[in-house]
Amino acid sequence: MIFDFFTSTFGTILEMFKNGGIITYIIAIIGIYGLITSLEKIHYLRKISKASTPQIINTVNDAMERGGSLEALKSIGHYQNPVSRIISEALKIGYRNKAEVEDAMERVFIVEMSEMTKGLSMLRTIIEIAPLLGLIGTVIGIWYTFKAMGIGGNSSGMAEGIYIALITTIAGLAVAITLLPLYSYITGLIEKEMDKIELAKKMTNWGYATMRLMVDTDIPCAVEALRDSDGIVNVKEINEPESNIWVAFKPSMLEKSINNIILEKCNASAEIVESKLKQ
Known about the structure:
The chain has ten helices and four strands. By secondary structure, it is α+β, with helices and mostly antiparallel strands. It has two domains: about 200 residues, no CATH class; about 70 residues, 2-Layer Sandwich (Alpha-Beta Plaits). Helix 2 packs parallel to helix 8, helix 3 packs across helix 4 and helix 9 packs across helix 10. The radius of gyration is 31 Å and the shape is rod-shaped.
C-alpha cells in the first residue's frame, strides 16, 4: 500500500513536470542547487561548531601550563574552526605587538565570516525568485490558454489549461517552502558561531604575560631597552641553559614586539624560549 502511494505520487510529479513546461524545469534545477548548497553549508557549520569556546580555552590553559604559547598553538591546531584560528592569532602576542595581533585576528575573522556566509545570498535569491518564476509560468500558461481557446472555447478546456498553468506556481512555492526553513537554520548556526567568536575575543584579552628570552649579545642593553618600553612590567637577567632574560608585560599595552624592541635599541637578536599568557 505504501509502495503504491509513493509510485502514484512519483507518477503525479512526473506528469506535472511534463505539463508544466520549461519554467518548471528551471525551478527544479535552481531548487536542487539550493538544496545541495543548504546541505553542504549545514554540514560545514555543524562540523566547525562541535568544539565549544570554553573547551578550546581550557585546552589552551592546560597547554600554557605545560609549555607556554607554542604548546598551546600546537594543542588547538586539530580543531580547525574559526574560534581556534582566532585564538591562535591571540596567542602570538609578544611575538608581535598588540596592533599586529589585532589586525591578524581581524583578517582571520573576515576570512572565516566569508567562508561561513558563502552561498547564502544565492540561497536567499533562490527562495525569493522561485515563487516569482512560478507566477510567471502561470501567467504565461493562462495567456496561452485563452489565446488557444478563442472566444468560442468551452469551460472544461479552460479549466484544464489553468490547471497546467498553475503547476509552475506549485513548483515555485514548493522550492521556497523547502529552502526557507533550511536558510533560517543556517543563519541560526552562523549567529551561534559569531557569538563563539565574540566570546573567544573576550577570553583571549590577556591581562598578563611572561617570557623567557635568549639574547645573543649585549644582555644589559636588552634588559635596559625592555625596561624603557611601554607595557613592560618587570625585566631581570637570569642564568639558565636556554635563556638569559625574563620579562613580564601587559599585552594590551605592548606597542612593539619583544624581538623588535631589542633589535631596534641594541641591534641584537633575541629568541623567545617560552611565552605564557594569563587572563
